[in-house]
Amino acid sequence: MLDAADLPTPLAEVAAGAAVFVERRLSTFLPPTTIVVANRVQLAMYAVRAATAVAGGRPSWLARLRYGFAMWREARTGLACTALSPTGVLIVVTRRALDDRWLTDYFVHEFVHAVQAGRPGRREQMTELLRFDLGLAAVDEEDLYAEDLRQQAEEGEAYRIQAEHAGVIDVGGMPWRP
């Protein structure tokens, strides 16, 4: 379920088209997904609020600051990010992305992450990592290693499907040449 009610109509239409592509490609529905548009500072603020609400507990102001700063730094080059929210998934699109000609492909990438977050057990794993990132829980080295591998695999899947949408590779994953 995509909540794009507060977005300008052209942006909502782009998001809806990307959502349909991802749902068909992955043969599953998006979890409840909200999209907001923000600058870098707002992106960090949205991420901190969502992470804190999902993780529960009361992270220190320093932990929240560190987490927000990490998200702010990531937004220097990224044009969108996906985060857990209390009701499902939050996708934050930077204002810079709005004029980008590949915006639909970015939505495809982020919607793949939304689907990944909705897979059985994945939300719980991501929540535990948020608790660790916010200083609310300890995670052992093996679990951090496993999480890093999962995140790399998920990025690979998201980029592969984004490339399929862009017409760079075919559905089998083979390079496409005009």
Beta-strand portion reads 5-15%
Helix content: 55-70%
Count of alpha and pi helical runs: 6
Distance between the termini: 35 Å
Major beta-sheet overview: 4 strands, mixed
Number of strands: 4
From the alpha carbons, calculate the radius of gyration and give it in angstroms: 16 Å
- The helix-and-strand class reads alpha/beta
Mean pLDDT over the residues: 90
- Overall 3D shape: globular
How many independent structural domains? Answer: 1
How would you explain this protein's 3D organization?
This protein has 178 residues and is of the alpha/beta class. It has one domain. It contains six helices and four strands. It has helices spanning 9-26, 40-55, 61-74, 103-117, 122-133, 141-166; strands spanning 2-3, 33-38, 80-85, 88-94. It has a four-stranded mixed beta sheet, sandwiched between helices. β1 (2-3), α1 and β2 (33-38) form a beta-alpha-beta unit. It is globular. The chain starts with a strand and ends in a 12-residue tail after the last helix. The mean pLDDT is 90. This is Phage metallopeptidase domain-containing protein.
Provide keyphrases for this structure.
6 helices, 178 residues, four-stranded mixed β-sheet, alpha/beta, globular, Phage metallopeptidase domain-containing protein
Topology record:
Layout: E1 2-3, H1 9-26, E2 33-38, H2 40-55, H3 61-74, E3 80-85, E4 88-94, H4 103-117, H5 122-133, H6 141-166
Parallel strand pairs: 1-2, 2-4
Antiparallel strand pairs: 3-4
What is shown here, in short?
With 178 residues, the protein is an alpha/beta fold. The protein is built from six helices and four strands.
